[in-house]
Design a protein that fits this description.
The protein has six helices and seven strands, in the order αβββαβαβαββαα. With about 190 residues, it is an alpha/beta fold. The strands form two sheets. The chain has a five-stranded mixed beta sheet. It is globular and about 75 Å long.
C-alpha cells in the first residue's frame, strides 16, 4: 500500500503538469486581448478623487473635458507605462486631450515620473486605493478609455496606446466628436 501511495504522489503532479502544458500549448498563436469591459456604452463612473498635482483639490466628473478625450490609467511602477509614455507625449504635442488616472501609486513616485518624463495629461487624478480603476473595469495598467463629451465610454483599450492601435483609437475619437451621430452609431464605429 505504501508503494502505491508513493506512486500516486508522483503520478498526480505529472498529470497536472501535462494537462497544463497541453492547455498552454493550445493557446499559442491565439489573440490574448480579451475585452469584457462593462463600462463601454455606459456613463463614466462617478468619482471624487484628489488632483495629483494638488491633493487638497478634489476632482469630479464635472472637471472632465467637454469634448471627446482619452482617459489613461497609469502608474510609475508599471513597466509598460514607460513604453507607452513617449507615444502619449506625441499625442499631447498633436493636441489630443488626455486625462490621467494615477493608479495605486505613491504621490512622490508619481510626481517624479511626470517630472522626469514630462506630463502629457491635461491633469491626473490620484486613485491611490485603486477603487476607481475597479469601477472602470481595469484589468491592469496601462489601460485607456475613449470618453465622449456626453460622458459615455465608447472604447476600452487594454494595454498600451501606440502606433499599432492609434488609427483605430483616433477613428473612434473622431466619430465620437461627430454631433450628427447618435450614441449607438458611435458605439458601433468604435468597436
Amino acid at each position: 500500500m505504501t508503494r502505491n501511495k508513493r506512486l500516486w504522489v508522483f503520478i498526480i503532479p505529472l498529470l497536472v503538469f501535462v494537462v497544463l502544458v497541453v492547455m498552454l500549448f493550445r493557446q499559442l498563436g491565439k489573440p490574448t486581448e480579451v475585452n469584457t469591459s462593462r463600462v463601454v456604452g455606459q456613463p463614466l463612473p462617478e468619482f471624487s478623487l484628489p488632483l495629483l498635482s494638488d491633493t487638497a483639490r478634489q476632482m469630479t466628473k464635472a472637471d472632465l473635458p467637454n469634448s471627446p478625450f482619452l482617459l489613461n490609467v497609469w502608474g510609475s511602477w508599471c513597466p509598460t507605462c514607460y513604453v507607452e509614455h513617449p507615444f502619449l507625449m506625441q499625442l499631447h504635442a498633436k493636441g489630443v486631450p488626455m486625462v490621467g488616472v494615477n493608479y495605486k501609486d505613491e504621490l512622490p513616485d508619481a510626481l517624479a515620473y511626470l517630472n522626469e518624463y514630462q506630463d502629457p495629461f491635461m491633469f491626473s487624478i490620484q486613485d491611490l486605493s485603486g477603487e476607481y480603476a475597479l469601477d472602470l473595469g481595469l484589468m491592469g495598467a496601462p489601460e485607456s478609455y475613449v470618453v465622449g463629451a456626453d460622458g459615455v465610454v465608447y472604447q476600452h483599450i487594454v494595454g498600451e496606446v501606440g502606433e499599432m492601435n492609434w488609427a483605430q483609437i483616433e477613428s473612434c475619437m473622431t466619430t465620437v466628436a461627430d454631433a450628427a451621430l447618435d450614441r449607438d452609431a458611435k458605439l458601433a464605429a468604435c468597436q
